[in-house]
Design a protein that fits this description.
Layout (H helix, E strand, L loop, with lengths): L1 H15 L11 H15 L9 H14 L6 H11 L9 H15 L9 H4 L2
Helix pairs in contact: 1-3, 2-5, 3-4
């Protein structure tokens, strides 16, 4: 049960755009796979595009699991940040670009793996 709560919290933090330390030992390929899985959960209708409504539902559900409420303005800011081409939807590539940029920033020595000291940052 504790593992499930941790996983839900991590997913919620990633989707909401809050800072999150990377997991020690995680490779860039694993980060990319995690991003793809996250997008699959976000894209509830399976059309390959996440709408503002899908992001709202996902972020609201994650916030409720933490005993919080979700602010529409926060969702709007997050959507705008993710929708890099401004077409009104978020694709898996757009989400992955942000997720991998976070990984790359955390991977200070650029070896493709989050070392213990990097994870602690």
């Amino acid at each position: 049960m504790k593992t499930l709560k941790i996983a839900v919290t991590i997913g919620a933090l990633l989707i909401s755009g809050q800072a999150l330390a990377q997991k020690a030992g995680q490779t860039r390929a694993e980060a990319q796979a995690a991003s793809a899985k996250k997008f699959k959960n976000l894209d509830t209708n399976g059309d390959g595009k996440a709408s503002p409504a899908e992001l709202l539902a996902f972020m609201t559900k994650a916030a409720e699991k933490r005993g919080e409420t979700m602010d529409q303005a926060k969702v709007d800011r997050r959507f705008k940040r993710l929708d890099t081409n401004g077409d009104g939807v978020v694709t898996a590539d757009e989400l992955a670009a942000e997720d991998l940029a976070k990984f790359d920033k955390a991977d200070a020595n650029k070896n493709g793996v989050i070392d213990a000291d990097e994870a602690a940052q």
